[in-house]
Prior knowledge:
Helix content is 58%, strand content 11%. The chain contains 9 helices and 5 strands, in the order ααααβαβαβαβαβα. It starts with a helix and ends with a helix. The structure holds CO-5-methoxybenzimidazolylcobamide (B1M).
Amino acid sequence: MPDLQQLGEAIKSGDRTKSTTLTQEAIDAQVPAQEILDVMVDAMDVVGQRFQNNEIFVPEMLIAARAMKEALALLEPILVEAGITPVATAVIGTVEGDLHDIGKNLVAMMWKGANFDVVDLGTNVSPAKFVEAVRTHNAQLVGLSALLTTTMPSIQKTVEAIRSEGLDVTKVVIGGAPVTQEYADQIGADGYAADAASAVEVARSLIES
Length: 209
Ligand code: B1M
């Protein structure tokens, strides 16, 4: 039986060799992907708390994130169930000024799994880039992620840019640790999701509405 506690420890200490080996062992032992993912997310929460308490600093946070990203990449094929015809096209990105991408990547994976055609613009994406991508890909859905309270205004700017271009049929879903339903209502986003799983439900209901 693979040791998931060790996996959490490997992520916390930024040991990517161990984090990927243990993840692969868990996958091979048919541990449910959600169970593996929960361990990873909990580990990153601990990393965040340590950072907040000044027990670790940005370099340690960065290597922990790298250990998680590489392990997460192994889970992607399992989280993504390939569909035949995409339900809709979605553009996703982390908003301008923000470099956090693990949560955004998870939402992208879950949307792919829900059979959306996903165009991932990466991090630090300007409102103009979002608008351009929506036009180019004729996207019905846009996902905006922000992890910093200081980058939340970039979400609002992006929503305003999309609306001012008259792209009203495109539904906007927002999320990220500091983001709330109240904030989504305040800035006129169509939907808010607290986590990657509910981002699928929210996206589906918006597309079907
Ligand atoms: Co940063 N960081 N970070 N960081 N970092 C946080 C966010 C922080 C809370 C840490 C802390 O102080 N406790 C804090 C923000 C404080 C605040 O603004 N309130 C913080 C800070 C301050 C910073 C810097 C400013 C540090 C500095 O330089 N002094 C700096 C900013 C850089 C920048 O962006 N301009 C910085 C840098 C970094 C690293 C680069 C080192 C690294 C990111 C690496 C990477 O992403 N590639 C990093 C990390 C790893 C974190 C923590 C530890 C972990 C984030 C994470 O990946 N969580 C984080 C503390 C924490 O969150 N516990 C922290 C796991 C991930 C699965 O969760 O991203 O929340 P999350 O995604 C969830 C939901 O939020 C939601 O679903 C996901 C999964 O269910 N969700 C969506 C996310 N996007 C969504 C979109 C949706 C729907 C749901 O629809 C489209």
